[in-house]
Amino acid sequence: MWTLLLALAAAPVITWLGTAGINWTARAVGRLPSPQVACFAAGFANLGGLVVLFLVLQPTGSNPRELLAGIFFMSAYGFCVTFLNWFVFTVTDTSMHAHLLVEIGHEPEITFEELTRRYNKKSIIAARIPRLLQLGQLRLDHGRLYLTGSWVLASAVALRFLRRLLGLRPRPPQEDTAPASVDRATGSHGLPLSRR
Residue 14: which residues within 8 A CB-CB, separation 6 or more? Predict the structure, then answer.
């Protein structure tokens, strides 16, 4: 019992260390690590380890209902740790809140107008599109942007469902629509985003 409790308590740290290990290994071999892939790989490996540990620690002839309940609990806990890990890494990597606070911390005399100039929707999109192209999540073909796979959308749907399940809004309301051009990012105007 104590072994299992210690494993549950250590699971978030083990997942975080696994994510960091995947990222550092990818960098060491000259790859550009994807934070999302690293987070989910480490998290689901940890989830699998928790389920296996639970099964190994069960006495022979255990009640099947108790086994199923334990597997369900370990899986749910492991998934929550994975989600937390992904959320923490994503926030530290891309959150505008964190960027704004760091910017203000580095330049305490910065004005509201200067922040607005640096962080308007057009400049944010212009900064993100090249990164998404570099990570291989988008593809530019004849002036049009395409998603290169559906796992990002599938993940978004799963996370939206989880947010709804937790009683959280799926996304913040948009004040207005995104700008029509991302010419700084790609050198083109009016690039529509579509799936192929």
Answer: 46, 49
